[in-house]
Amino acid sequence: MIRTLRVQGMVLALAAPLLGGVLAPAAARADGPGPRTRPKPHGVHAAGVALRTSGPASAVVPGRTYEWTFKLTAKGPRKSGKAVFRARLPRSLAFVSGNRDCAAAGWTVECDLGAVRKGQTVTGALKAKVSRSARPGQRIHLRGTVRWGRAHASRTFPAVRVAGAAHLGHSKAAPKKPAAKKPAAVRRISSAR
Q: Is the pTM of this model over 0.70?
């Protein structure tokens, strides 16, 4: 039976050019599966947009407000499209404001960056207050995602550590130095001769 199918497949394949190629697909299936199609590479949309992030340069103090910045660069293939930045804050941070059209719902912050052209770079910043209940030594992590049309990219902001008790500004002020004494005036004694 297998030989018959193969022989019929060859006959059909040979007869296909005479019949205008109508039977060629059937002949190919009779011999086995057709050529494999390549799956689309994972993360294709990430090639269209780039995201860079930065955060506080030193340890953060509970109760104070700090800034986390992000930068979006539209690379293509689109010519322009709407861009949106979104970040989920950890419980140790509370949203204060953003320099783009930003709003928070719970711990999720979304910033509308507007229409962005291919090749354009847009920067933005989030201000967040460190919770007073943040523990000294705790590391604060947050991740941002930017969408530009159908393209998207995600990136983690640099982790920042909550300052220890020694850095919280509760140390005693250094004692004042005593005022230096002025040197006594020197009298000139003139000798009359």
A: no
Q: Is 56 in contact with 160 (CB distance < 8 Å)?
A: yes
- Which residues does 78 contact at the CB level (< 8 Å), separation at least 6? 48, 118, 148, 149, 150, 151
pLDDT score recorded for residue 172: 39
Backbone angles phi and psi of 152, in degrees to 5: -150, 155
- CA distance linking residue 146 with residue 156, whole number of Å: 12
Q: Please, how many CA atoms are within 13 Å of residue 155, restricted to the half-sphere of its CB?
A: 20
Distances (CA, A) of 38 to 26, 42, 48, 112, 136: 22, 12, 21, 36, 51
pLDDT at 55 over 90: yes
The closest alpha carbon to 32, from 1, 3, 7, 6, belongs to 6
Question: What is the C-alpha separation between 99 and 69, in angstroms, rounded?
Answer: 10
Distance CA 55, CA 153 (A): 18
Q: Using alpha carbons only, how large is the chain's radius of gyration in Å?
A: 35
Higher pLDDT, 173 or 72: 72
